[in-house]
Amino acid sequence: MQRTLRIIYASTSGHTEFVVDTLAKYLKERDPQMVTTLIRAERAMPEDLTKDDLTILASSTWNTGSIEGQLNPHMHAFLMTRAKDMDLRNGAFAVIALGDYRYFYTAKASDHLSAFIEHHDGKQVLPSLSIINEPFDQTERIEHFGDELITIMKTLTTKAEG
Ligand SMILES: Cc1cc2nc3c(=O)[nH]c(=O)nc-3n(C[C@H](O)[C@H](O)[C@H](O)COP(=O)(O)O)c2cc1C
Question: What is the pLDDT of residue 119?
Answer without folding.
Answer: 98
